[in-house]
Amino acid sequence: MRGEATVLHADLDSFYASVEQRDAPELRGRPVIVGGGVVLAASYEAKAFGVRTAMGGRQARDLCPHAIVVPPRMEVYSAASKDVFAIFRDTTPLVEGLSIDEAFLEVGGLRRIAGTPEQIAVRLRERVRAEVGLPISVGIARTKFLAKVASAVSKPDGLLLVEPEREEAFLLPLPVERLWGVGRVTAEKLHGLGIHTVGELAELEAATAERLLGRAAGAHLHALARLRDPRPVDTTHRRGSIGSQRALGTRPRSPEELELFLTQIVDRLARRLRDRDRVCRTVVLRLRFGDFAKATRSRTLRSPTERTAVLLDVAQGLLASAMPEIEERGITLIGISLSQLGSAADVQPELPIDWDDGARLDTVLDALRDRFGATSVARAAQLGRDPGWSTPVLPEHE
To answer: Cofactor stoichiometry and binding (predicted)?
Structure first.
């Protein structure tokens, strides 16, 4: 017998654009694009014209000439996220943050004190709207995967409950793109095999799916298609990595531009490490080429660090090693992840202790940004350049 639908997936709608419409009443009901060179977010009014996240700014304006383009305000989005997550944690202690604008909540066991999962979800949406001023969609299901699919289907500003007895009726007719982990390349491969719906994938034998899609991906997607997802809402461990990425559009990028984007990303991530008293040992460069194939390069340090200069030096080395392939294939996305995180308090200083200017510079820059804002001071390489940021690759909430 299947369990009760007690998992909520709460996902803010067009988060950055919704914040802009919240703060500027004249933007409400109008097409809004956040970010000029590359679309970081688009309101639903802009999406109706085909504008999508990570699209080049010129293409977006061609599709929607009357759109209002606004620069990103990452500090404001971060503050809104914290307010929303405070509501999540006031709803249930079992919250698993996925990113700056979405989370899973486990509400099983709260029926006596808070009502049914659907009643809890209704109140959560009302609170986010009333206290933070933002629309949020919520899916409710027995598993995390189904809850995430339900929230996506319910958008914008919706609520959808998938009862256990109607899971097959809900999931199987949906396009395979709804499966967690099916991107453009996998979708095209499945379409080429005549598989367009989740139900058609579920009809395959597991061994066939693994042979067609690869052992790991095939097993994962086939299990989801057959409604197998045993993962609980996970609040027991700290995240093992943090990261950010930047979508670059499709036009060619110079080595100087890529180094600028890399510097911005590393600068931001290193500060997040220091803010949390964390250190990392492994730096991972993430790339998406012009043909949309993905690649990673990584280096593990001998000693953990939170120093911007050290992390940037490693990241620049990884980028340099990838430049021949970038020049040949083009690039549409660049990102950095910092993994093998640990507590700064656990790191033993090596002798002789290095008290060079780099550590002091990090401290001074952090203090200035704390007092005057994240964009109040920048490295010389960033002066006069686009300060825009994309949505983090990995969750902000550790």
So the answer is: Binds 2 magnesium ions per subunit.
Active-site choice (102, 106, 210, 306): 102
Residues 145 and 93 in one domain: yes
CA 325 to chain centre: 26
Q: How far apart are CA 61 and CA 249, in angstroms?
A: 13
Whether 24 is in a domain gets the answer yes
Q: Does residue 143 sit within a domain?
A: yes
Q: Which residues, 6+ apart, have CB-to-CB distance to 99 below 8 Å?
A: 391, 392, 394, 395, 396
Q: Residue 196 in contact with residue 176, Cβ under 8 Å?
A: yes
Both 333 and 201 in one domain: the answer is no
pLDDT in single tens digits along all 398 residues of the chain: 467 899 999 999 999 999 999 999 999 999 999 987 889 899 999 999 999 988 888 999 999 999 999 999 988 998 999 999 999 999 999 999 888 899 999 999 888 889 999 999 999 999 999 999 999 999 999 999 999 999 999 999 999 999 999 999 999 999 988 887 787 788 888 898 899 999 988 898 888 888 888 888 888 888 888 888 777 787 765 556 788 888 888 888 999 999 999 999 999 899 888 887 889 989 999 998 887 788 889 898 888 899 999 999 999 999 999 999 999 999 988 999 898 888 777 655 544 444 444 555 555 555 555 555 555 555 555 555 554 444 443 333 33
Residue 155 backbone phi and psi in degrees, to 5: -65, 150
Q: Containing domain of residue 116, as a range?
A: 1-166
Check which CATH number belongs to the domain holding 323 and give it: 3.30.1490.100
At residue 99, what are phi and psi to the nearest 5 degrees?
-165, -170
Q: Count of CB atoms within 10 A of residue 81's CB?
A: 23
pTM higher than 0.85 for the full model?
no
Location of structure tokens 């010129």: 58
Q: Identify whether 188 is a catalytic site residue.
A: no
CA distances from 148 to 101, 144, 151, 294 (A): 13, 6, 5, 24
Q: Which residues are annotated as a binding site for Mg(2+)?
A: 11, 101
d(CA 70, CA 256): 25
Structure tokens at 253: 């990028």
